[in-house]
Design brief:
The complex is a heterotetramer of chains A (193), B (304), C (269) and D (841).
Chain A (H helix, E strand, L loop, with lengths): L4 H7 L15 H9 L3 E9 L8 E7 L9 E7 L18 H4 L9 E3 L7 E2 L2 H19 L1 E3 L5 E12 L5 H14 L1 E6 L4
Parallel strand pairs in A: 7-8
Antiparallel strand pairs in A: 1-2, 2-3, 4-5, 6-7
Chain C lengths: L8 H18 L4 H20 L16 H18 L2 H12 L5 H10 L8 H19 L20 E9 L2 E8 L5 E4 L17 E3 L6 E5 L5 E7 L8 H7 L1 H9 L3 E2 L8
Parallel strand pairs in C: 1-6, 6-7
Antiparallel strand pairs in C: 1-2, 2-3, 4-5, 5-6
Helix pairs in contact in C: 1-2, 1-7, 2-3, 2-6, 3-4, 3-5, 3-6, 5-6
Chain D lengths: L12 E5 L3 H4 L1 H14 L2 E6 L11 E4 L5 H14 L5 H7 L21 E2 L4 E2 L49 H10 L3 H8 L3 H12 L11 E5 L1 H4 L4 H14 L10 E3 L6 H6 L6 E2 L3 E2 L8 H8 L18 H13 L23 H9 L5 E5 L3 H4 L3 H10 L2 E6 L16 H6 L3 E6 L8 E4 L4 E5 L12 H19 L5 H5 L12 H9 L1 E2 L3 E3 L4 E3 L17 E2 L9 E2 L2 E2 L20 E2 L27 E4 L4 E4 L66 E2 L16 E6 L13 H6 L4 E5 H7 L6 E5 L4 E9 L5 E3 L2 E9 L7 H4 L15 E2 L11 E7 L1
Helix pairs in contact in D: 3-6, 3-7, 3-9, 6-7, 13-15
Chain lengths: 193, 304, 269, 841
């Protein structure tokens, strides 16, 4: 940026033009502003989640976040500023809108009980509670503090964690931190295959 | 409908009278250049066409090829044709050709179409279908040398790629052009596109060893607004049936140039004959009725 | 349209004049503005054709302007403004013409050198801006384009952007800024405020209305400034300068919502 | 990738092998076409099938799947025979001149020296350089003395003997020549099925840029999992690295060895060590013998090993600083000098826990539970039916996905009877995660660019962000340990989780943690700048091993500094025109866009190609300057002869890999895939990779030709689909609606098979049913005199999706077929190149 942010602010905001501008009769325009159906759209820079070219995309959402209207995605556009894809998208990238707005999306936590032949709904807290209980029971039951030669190993090798590779770096770090804290050694990721 | 100014009509199908733009010096003719030698058949342009024209999802069937469907469809106007070709010299090629309306200078569909105003050719070369005037007779389907227009059983109308006449009318390039990731689609004036094509052809001939490389702009139909750069311009057939010398089917030329005018003259002659007879012979006078023989018993033959 | 050499001078202005008339018919609310702007554009066309002098050295564009020549054109502009201009402007023009003020060259010089455009008197700045724009635009074509320049001020005359343009590129649109002083267009970045450099998307809303179609307001909630943006991916035949001026209703809307424009356009909005 | 996507436009010559970028990276492939159009660059494509990449190639060679090393070995042989290398580059930037110890044996019989047949491992002490002064009387301390105490692992000699004339019989150059002298064009034809004259033409073309050592042009090798997914995958890629070193392409604009990773953040997942054998930043996992931090650090911190006169940065010597900074990040204040920075809270591994081994353990009842966040194990396999059976034995399975997937519904996989379903006692939790547009965070692309992305919309319905789900589970477990105690609760209680919102950690805070910050004032002696406590660190030169700094991943130090988030920068400018884009986001390490770019200059720091100046030695400033950040010690004068490969102890590129950095041999050797049609023509006695791992469970069968499996099968992706996601997108399903099997036309004619007919593909493990695509793009080949056919299967269809739910597919995932045989270094299963039968249905 040639003009750094500080120097911009110093010059302050330009004086607003007098209401009469150059003296035009603003009445007709004033009337029109009253009836304008203004929509506020936000443009979000994102990255296509598919292959590793990392094409830049711009997601247009309509709806004013401030007035707790949940924004709706209206258009996904290639980002021409992105040096790699220069705004182009492949057939998967250009149909990303169908990946964001898709009626096959899973929308609520479900559980399949042992022996059952169907999914049941389950509350978030209940699911988290059960998973934590089962994990702790398993860890306490099978935790290996010392190996056969008496060396400290602190291993919890009966729980496996499989991470995907459209998970973000930060999520992967939280996985490594939490799983290694529990002693998990069966830590694997799609990066392996 | 798009703004009239830039899309001035040049020729209208089934239209007896003269047309405003006819014969005027063609304003800059628009042209779409497709470089089949750098196309990787990724179908981004198919998706762009479907999305711009809001075409609904339609179930497709596996058909022993990477091609999305066997041919263009009434609501799928842009299709990449995949062709596995073994040349005489044994070399193998997997040719990918973006197939859509060629927007001919002398369009077979327009020539064949009897409906007034159903097919319009603009001065910039675009051949556009006006859905409201189409009577669904499908003459254009058989008139097209490239087998592009397709009939829709639901709406009983015929559709094809319009070279995004609505976008071009607004000064934009067609939707498929902007979608190409490898940049093998270009849009601009025909002279510019032919120059660009020539540059690429020269590179193909000298560097890539395609001696027969060339530009496909068939003059048998007066040239087209869609131009290909081909590895082998001497044999375009192998690119999924791209005709070497596309012509309006003979049956139409005969019908259009011979039968129709002859038929017209014949019917006018007959009409003239009737008038002449009237003038010379006068109106039909009541004929002296031959006496009706009384038939005994009243069972005269009544059937007539 | 090739930016670097630009179509002939006359054709460039003809397109703007035609567009002003076309939009005048289509948007009655802005008809009066546009009919006056048409006159202004014709004036600028004549000035531009006449002053086709090549830039001498490659120094700063603003020093290259022949202020004498510019000052000589002011009387025509005054006469035009008094005849066709809105009330206040007409009155001011007549009064200035009657006093045949001689210091126009100084006014033009101080206007040219005040990078952000001084604003003592909206009328004087109108005369100066309109007159100098025509000359500066012919000069700026002689400055080479730099594909790697993404600054927020004009690469040729470091002027402040007047409006932003979205031009179709691949599956999206690239953003260009148009200089308020020399009308040069240069490639800029999406999702950033040209004025304060804000990049948080939540603070960079775009306000659009169906009635205004391809023109919308690109605002910044941090420095409360805005630019009107002309989206050429919706209407490829738009003339950014004229389309921006035509949608004056958006300027009123923006002002009512506490946003201010960096620099007023040719007709004072 | 050592270079980057946009850098491909600078290349003059491309070998695209083991990858299909036109189909799998279409928008990145624009740069290949750009090089072809603007620089007349040549493209040589080698692939088992004629792909869309091949359709724009100058030369295409159809190769038998799994025989890549033979072709590449032939290329090395050709390059050496025709002097297609630059002497200055080879001698000074690679270990060609190093002399190898006495006792090292090349694998003429398929085995290197030191092979232990029973343990199926190598004793690698003979794979080492010769130390100066060691000479004839090898003072080999532990040659064959009775191993009383456990043999200390072999180490590199600090002072390596070398012969710049490259004449010494045991110098790496001569050994290389000898090793690949066996890869004659005739042998390559026997193994790969490529006619020798076509192979020679391709070798000639690719090495032509280095005609009589001219260094003006640069050639690149572009590959993907086509090379990785084999039982000798790592060695195949090593061969490519050796070729690029030999030809002097590494470090050059338009050069390098470029892996096109498959997914948006597969590079990030590798950097962040979501895999069993490393810690974030590629630090080694501790083993039981590492009783304390000091032992671990001595084992894992390499010492420089180079000729006396040369200099080597040996940057891995900073491993202590990286490790302690990581431990401070993981455990915060709980990691103190006294408790060895909580080193012992890390689990220590004494065996492999790789992907296929986890499923084997689960199948054998050892692994009792799995959490799968975005990884579809049943679709990936290999030998996916075994994965389904394994899951049936597990206690519970947690799946976090955005679409209904095969893994979460393994219990009602096709063919599961209601009775069987009733006996499956696994509890399955399916938690709705967030899509890519609903979360921010960083993706790292193939070119090592860390790019932050912003969330556009909140997750729909009752979905939660993945990090929130994970955090809630972990904190709930921590709460339980706080109340009820249990086995070794300390690491769980003390892991540093002090985010503003612990239940839903802000990824921006985590990204700052990855960059790392100073915990006490830290001064860099060279530039004597001081970073105050709690300030973000500007680069990994500031990391310390005394606990005064912390960083979640040393590689990412510099990504989010006091100057702000470098990964959020979006300035598209590229003044040099080389496609560097230094101000767009941030690439590791230290924003270097082309790695090893020191090698783009000759010995005295002048770029080989003045038209493509990346970096150069500025005599005036006594510093390296450039358009790209020098991947080098900034002030190391060329005269000190510091090698460009700063991460290697030798400082130079490794044509010869010493002491087992690669498990199956210092030089790549062709071994037959696990399931192969022929015995290895080079050494029939040792046909397969001697230490590639197979599995022994009853479901792990391996097919042989005499059991009727005589067709080679490979699996791959299509442009129109993305793994197992887009089978839920209408547009992509419309483009390619149904699964198919690509079958050579000649084979189909023999079987009287027409396109569109249903076929059944059977491997030793399972069946796969789909429609036949009869194609001329796969031709029969003569492999070692045997007529061989290859078929191909795209992987995109399972038993949940639009086409699947509509009953239009046979609901058989492709990876039912693949064998569980893994590469000895990368543990990647052999998805490409196994044996099958083909019948009509």
């Amino acid at each position: 940026m040639d003009l750094s942010r500080r120097s911009f602010l110093k010059t302050g905001v330009v004086g607003t033009v007098g209401i009469s501008a150059l003296g035009f009769d603003l009445q007709p325009l004033q009337a029109q502003t009253a009836t304008l159906k203004i929509a506020r759209t936000t443009q979000t820079r994102s990255t296509c989640p598919y292959c590793s070219v990392s094409c830049g995309i711009i997601i247009h959402t309509i709806g004013d976040g401030a007035k707790n209207v949940t924004p709706a995605v209206v258009h996904v556009e290639g980002d021409p500023d992105h040096p790699i894809n220069r705004g182009t998208l492949c057939p998967k990238g250009s149909s990303l809108l169908q990946d964001i707005v898709n009626d096959r999306r899973l929308l609520k936590p479900q559980v399949r009980r042992p022996g059952s032949d169907h999914w049941e709904d389950i509350a978030w807290d209940q699911a988290i509670e059960e998973i934590a209980t089962k994990t702790k029971l398993l860890r306490d039951a099978t935790f290996v503090e010392k190996d056969a030669n008496g060396k400290t190993v602190n291993r919890f090798d009966t729980l496996a964690f499989a991470g995907g590779c459209t998970d973000t770096n930060e999520f992967n770090y939280l996985v490594v931190k939490s799983m290694r804290a529990m002693g998990v050694t069966c830590l694997e990721n799609q990066a392996r295959v | 409908m798009s703004d009239r100014k830039t899309l001035q009509v040049q020729r209208i199908s089934g239209h007896p009278g003269p047309v405003a733009g006819a014969g005027m010096q063609r304003e800059e003719q628009v042209c779409k250049l497709i470089d089949t030698t750098t196309c990787i058949g990724c179908k981004a342009c198919e998706v762009a066409c479907v999305e711009w024209n809001d075409m609904p999802f339609q179930p497709t069937m596996f058909d022993n090829t990477y091609q999305t469907m066997p041919d263009t469809h009434w609501n799928y106007w842009n299709l990449i044709k995949f062709n596995e070709v073994t040349n005489e010299d044994g070399t193998f090629q997997w040719l990918m050709r973006k197939h859509q309306c060629m927007h001919c200078a002398d369009p077979g569909c327009l020539a064949a179409c009897p409906a007034d105003g159903a097919i319009v050719q603009y001065r910039n070369g675009i051949v556009d279908f006006q859905e409201e005037n189409c009577i669904g007779c499908q003459f254009c389907v058989s008139g097209c040398p490239f087998n592009v227009p397709k009939f829709s059983p639901t709406t009983k109308k015929v559709y094809k790629c319009t070279l995004c006449s609505d976008r071009v009318g607004q000064g934009l390039e067609p939707a498929c052009i902007k979608a190409c990731p490898t940049g093998c689609l270009h849009f601009g004036t025909k002279s510019d596109m032919l120059m660009l094509a020539e540059k690429r052809v020269k590179q193909l001939q000298t560097v890539s060893g395609f001696k027969e490389a060339g530009t496909y702009d068939p003059q048998t139909i007066g040239g087209t607004s869609v131009v290909y750069v081909l590895h082998d311009a001497s044999n375009p057939e192998k690119y999924g049936g791209l005709p070497k010398n596309p012509r309006i089917p003979l049956s139409f030329t005969i019908w259009k140039n011979w039968f129709k005018p002859i038929g017209l003259i014949a019917s006018m002659m007959a009409f003239a004959g009737v008038i002449l007879h009237y003038v010379t012979e006068g109106p039909r006078r009541p004929q002296p009725q031959p006496p009706v023989k009384e038939v005994d018993g009243g069972e005269g033959k009544k059937e007539n | 349209m090739m930016l670097s050499s630009g179509p002939g001078v006359r054709v460039r202005w003809d397109r703007r004049i035609e567009r002003a008339r076309e939009l005048g018919d289509k948007h009655p609310a802005a008809a009066t503005l546009l009919s006056f702007y048409e006159h202004v554009l014709r004036f600028q066309q004549d000035v531009a054709e006449e002053c086709n002098a090549p830039a001498k050295g490659m120094g700063c564009l603003r020093d290259e302007i022949d202020l004498g020549f510019a000052a000589s054109k002011i009387p025509i502009l005054l006469m035009l403004s008094s005849k066709h201009g809105p009330k206040e402007l007409a009155r001011h023009a007549e009064e200035v013409a009657s006093r045949n003020r001689s210091n126009w060259q100084e006014i033009l010089k101080s206007f040219a050198l005040a990078h952000r455009g001084f604003n003592e008197n909206p009328f004087d700045s109108f005369f100066a801006r309109v007159c100098l724009q025509a000359i500066a635009e012919t000069l700026q074509f002689q400055f080479p384009a730099d594909a790697n320049y993404f600054g927020s001020v004009c690469p040729a005359c470091s002027g402040v952007p007047q409006l932003s343009i979205l031009r179709p590129e691949a599956e999206g649109a690239s953003r260009w800024l148009l200089c308020s002083f020399c009308l040069r267009e240069w490639r800029f970045r999406r999702i950033i405020c040209p004025w304060c450099g804000e990049e948080d998307k939540e603070k960079l809303p775009r306000y659009s209305a169906p009635e205004c179609g391809h023109v919308s307001v690109e605002a910044c909630d941090r420095c409360r400034t805005y630019l009107k943006s002309v989206d050429m991916t919706i209407d490829g035949r738009a003339e950014p300068l004229v389309d921006e001026a035509a949608m004056a209703v958006l300027d009123l809307w923006a002002r009512d919502h506490g946003y201010a424009k960096m620099v007023p356009n040719a007709i004072g909005f | 990738m050592t270079n980057g996507w946009v850098d491909i436009k600078n290349t003059d010559m491309m070998l695209i092998m083991g990858g299909n970028p036109a189909e799998n990276h279409p928008c990145g492939f624009k740069w290949v076409i750009e090089a072809k159009r603007n620089r007349d660059a040549k493209i040589v494509v080698v692939d088992p099938r004629f792909t869309r990449t091949a359709s724009v190639a100058d030369q295409f060679l159809q190769i038998r799947a799994g025989s890549d090393i033979a072709f590449l070995g032939g290329l090395i042989n050709y390059a050496l025979a025709n002097n297609r290398f630059n002497h200055e580059y080879l001698v000074n930037y690679t270990n060609a001149a190093f002399i190898v110890k006495e006792g090292f044996k090349l694998p003429e019989d398929g085995l290197y020296s030191g092979y232990d047949a029973t343990a199926r491992t190598y004793d690698k002490s003979t794979w080492n350089y010769e130390e100066v002064g060691a000479g004839a009387h090898a003072s080999d301390t532990h040659s064959h003395a009775v191993q009383s105490s456990p043999v200390p692992p072999p180490t590199l000699p600090p002072n390596v003997a070398y012969d710049l004339s490259l004449q010494h019989p045991r110098c790496v150059f001569q050994l290389l020549k000898q090793q690949y002298s066996r890869y004659t064009p005739e042998m390559v034809e026997r193994i790969t099925g490529i006619p020798r004259e076509r192979a020679i033409k391709a070798w000639e073309t690719f090495t032509s840029i280095r005609q009589n050592g001219d260094m003006k042009k640069a050639g690149t090798i572009i590959y993907a999992v086509g090379w990785t997914q084999h039982s000798s995958g790592t060695q195949t890629i090593r061969t490519a690295a050796m070729i690029q070193l030999l030809l002097g392409n590494v470090g050059r604009a338009g050069g390098g060895v470029n892996a096109l990773r498959g997914h948006s953040n597969i590079q990030g997942a590798t950097d962040m060590a979501g895999i069993f054998d490393i810690l974030p930043g590629y630090l080694k996992m501790p083993v039981p013998a590492d009783t304390d931090l000091k032992t671990y650090l001595t084992r894992t911190t390499p010492k420089a090993s180079k000729p006396k006169e040369w200099d080597s940065f040996n940057y891995w010597s900073n491993t202590p600083a990286f490790t302690v900074s990581l431990l401070k990040a993981l455990y915060g204040d709980a990691a103190t000098k006294e408790n060895d920075f909580a080193f012992n809270w890390l689990p220590k591994i004494d065996r492999k826990y790789s992907w296929a081994e986890i499923w084997d353990d689960m199948y054998n009842g050892k692994v009792k539970a799995m959490m799968a966040f975005g990884m579809n194990g049943v679709m990936i396999g290999p030998n996916a039916k075994k994965n389904i059976e394994a899951l049936k034995k597990a206690d519970f399975l947690v799946v976090c996905e955005i679409y209904p997937d095969e893994t979460s519904e393994f219990w009602r996989a096709p063919g599961t009877t209601p009775e069987e379903m009733a006996k499956i006692n696994t509890t399955v939790y399916r938690l709705p995660g967030a899509g890519f547009a609903e979360k921010d965070g960083t993706f790292v692309n193939s070119a090592r660019w860390l790019q932050w992305k912003w969330a556009a919309v909140p997750p729909p319905g009752d979905c939660r962000l993945d990090q929130e789900i994970l955090a809630r589970i972990f904190l709930k477990i921590r709460g339980k340990y706080q109340q009820e105690g249990g086995k070794l609760p300390d690491p769980i209680l003390k892991a540093s989780w002090n985010y503003t919102n612990p239940n839903n950690p802000s990824l921006a805070e985590v990204a700052k943690e990855l960059n790392g910050k100073a915990l006490a004032d830290v001064t860099d002696p060279k530039t004597n700048t001081t970073i105050k406590a709690d300030q973000q660190l500007p680069g990994f030169a500031f990391l310390r091993d005394d606990g005064s700094t912390m960083s979640g991943n040393w590689l990412y130090c510099g990504s989010w500094t006091e100057a702000g988030a470098m990964i959020q920068r979006r300035d598209p400018a590229d003044p040099s025109g080389l496609g560097i884009h230094a101000n767009w986001a941030w690439s590791w390490p230290m924003n270097r866009r082309v790695m090893y770019n020191r090698a783009s200059c000759d010995l005295n720091g002048k770029p080989w190609d003045p038209d493509r100046k990346q970096i150069w030695w500025s005599e005036a400033k006594q510093k390296w300057a450039g358009n790209d950040v020098p991947d080098f010690k900034p002030d190391s004068d060329p005269k000190s002869h510091m090698g460009p490969f700063i991460m290697n102890p030798e400082g130079v590129g490794r044509l010869f890999v010493p002491i087992g950095a690669v498990a199956d041999g210092p030089f790549p050797e062709h071994y037959e895939p696990t399931e192969s049609l022929i015995a290895n023509p080079l050494h029939p006695s040792q046909s397969n990779n001697p230490i590639a791992k197979r599995f022994k469970s009853d479901m792990d069968k391996y097919g042989t030709p005499d059991q009727g499996y005589n067709i080679i099968c490979t699996t791959y992706r299509l442009t129109e689909h993305y793994h197992y996601w887009t089978k839920n997108n209408p547009m992509n399903v419309q483009l390619v609606p149904e699964p198919f099997v690509e079958i050579p036309a000649e084979l189909a004619d023999q079987m009287g098979l027409r396109g569109g007919e249903k076929v059944k593909v059977t491997s030793a493990r399972a069946d796969y049913i789909a429609k036949a695509m009869v194609t001329k793009r796969i031709k029969p080949m003569m492999v070692d005199g045997k007529k061989t056919y290859q078929i191909g299967i795209p992987i995109h269809w399972g038993y949940r999706g639009i086409a699947e739910d509509a009953g239009k597919t046979a609901k058989t995932p492709a990876n039912y077929l693949s064998p569980a045989a893994i590469d000895p270094n990368a543990y990647t299963p052999e998805f490409k190149g196994f044996l099958v039968k083909l019948e009509r249905v």
